[in-house]
DNA sequence: GATGAATGAGGCTTCATTCAT
DNA sequence: GATGAATGAAGCCTCATTCAT
């Protein structure tokens, strides 16, 4: 919230890092995952840095060794989530499938990601808390993916696997519906994420009519 | 010695009130509406009581004259929203329409409500901040409406206006999709809420397939 | 979400503490002593946390590092005072003295304690401000000491060093009289606490009659 | 605490009053008595003006009609208490009794007063909260009475009804002991205030020795 | 004479963050 | 590389008090 130069930090993470040992990345992931779980469960503001340090079993300064800020933690979680989503999109795009096939392919992966530790946090925690800069980066990432989905829909309309409809609206309805899944999904329940995704896709493809 | 029981306040609102003149209700609504707008725009935690009092043009104690708490403001906004939703559901249920017709009827109203000042706040702000008791009441309200939708779906399946599908999943997908509308909807844009609702319903009814 | 249970804090002080280095105890005592002086001088409610932090030369959060609450400060002061009183009583009970000798022994120490920084605060500040739980603990401590005094009186009546009289009333009169001493006693005045105690005891033993 | 001109108010109460109806004095007493009970029971700071108005069944502005201030309420209670004490002292001084007889006479009345509604408040509530001016007046009142007691003691020493001892210390011990009575005294218990006073006086006169 | 509504000022508490060791 | 201790800033809330009606 008092962004001095967050950009520097973010860039640093992918640039000339200051001599970080081999365990660094593993520990960083461990911390981020723990934080993601807590943020998703309790909410970002309801999870104090104190609580993080206690529940993660590390001292507060350690947290500041792995993240610039409290919200940098959230930013990093978002980056990881977006990376996963981008990879999923990439795989879908490369798949030898019809438009609707790619849609199904992507949203299955999307559901799995959004029900994972990182994804749940990404889905639940409002990005309003992070710096404008980081938020912009995040939004850009999302937008790229949404654009890709619209393109897939258009593609499906070309190959006649998807009906004529507004790609904008369809994309929004799809993301809206799928984003809400982690809100009620319980790991280890009757269905796993993959199955839920299948049902949802079928619903969207078939429609409720008749 | 401080907060004994939050619930007492909520109950008080419908119980033995400490003498309230006319005008109270109007001012209360004015304050709640202003707060709802700010909460929806900036986020609950990002909107301090100070900010509320400044932007609403009242002193801080006034807020505490109309609400027990900062989160009671949110609770009251939720109650108003739920009341509107319940009324909408009631109208839909009473309408002389097929299942799909009732669905369309309800979700049109739903969209309008969720795009209103109160509804946007209700849609955006996580109820994690409110007391367990109030949250339970809120959840119960939502669940009643969700159950009613599932019933309407079943009804539609009986009257053959809705295809065979899991009412649970369909209901969740519908709410997920519609809940996300206020996240991008802009008042005064190309479409009004009613029109967006139409498009969405068509999408859901027709399906993306073929 | 705010104050769940005050008692947890008190218990924590003797339980699983969050890692406290040496120096902690000394600083804690320093803060408590300063607070005790201010509370005794100005009154508990008249001494704001702001004032405490200013006069003690520490920032406000530091106070909350050493105490849960404003009233936990008072509670801790009470615990220290009670510990001193218990120790004094223990010494008096073990002394090889007649009943009246033990009485004299205890109330001399009592006076010294009640005229000390901690004792004055303990004597002056009404425990009405602290949580029911802490107040109960405090009262229990007092009652144990009062019971011990009654026992000493009975003992003195057995060994004929104390006249027949109601131990309950005698004990109450004694504590009442001695508790009031710090209200007028000035350190460095004509008499020191020990001497005042002597005079009081003589008065009580000899009586005003004849 | 923000004494503008409390003196004016106090004086006004005994001077040219602004046309107050006949019921004024009765209602004033009723309010003061109720406040005294609440202050004694809950403490001055723990009793908000809101609570006063609720429990006394009058609106807040009414309280400000009968008292300048919250602490003026306390001041008035103090004045009433002091008036009672002064009257009691006056009666004791005029009685045709030995020194010790006057002592007994006064402290019996003193106990009754201090166990009454007004007296309990006077005994329990620290005058630290009232304006310097009012506190001075109050202290002066107390001091006059204490001086009178010392004089009675001297008188008793002259008429050989009281033993040689320091009148200062004796007076302080007496007031200390008697002031504490309302702290444990319960109306309607085994003893009434008069009887408690008798026992205490006997204790003080006879002494604990032998 | 009474009250619903309003307020300035200040209270207590906690948060994210840093630094000396 | 780690931590106990510290802090500036800000948060929510409540109090005694007053006025327009």
UniProtKB/TrEMBL annotation, chains A, B, C, D:
This is TetR/AcrR family transcriptional regulator. Residues 48-67 bind DNA. InterPro entries: Homeodomain-like_sf, HTH-type_TetR-like_transc_reg, HTH_TetR, KstR2_TetR_C, Tet_transcr_reg_TetR-rel_C_sf. Keywords: DNA-binding, Repressor, Transcription, Transcription regulation. Residues 25-85 form the HTH tetR-type domain. Residues 1-17 have a biased composition (Basic and acidic residues). GO terms for molecular function: DNA-binding transcription factor activity; transcription cis-regulatory region binding. Residues 1-22 are annotated as: Disordered.
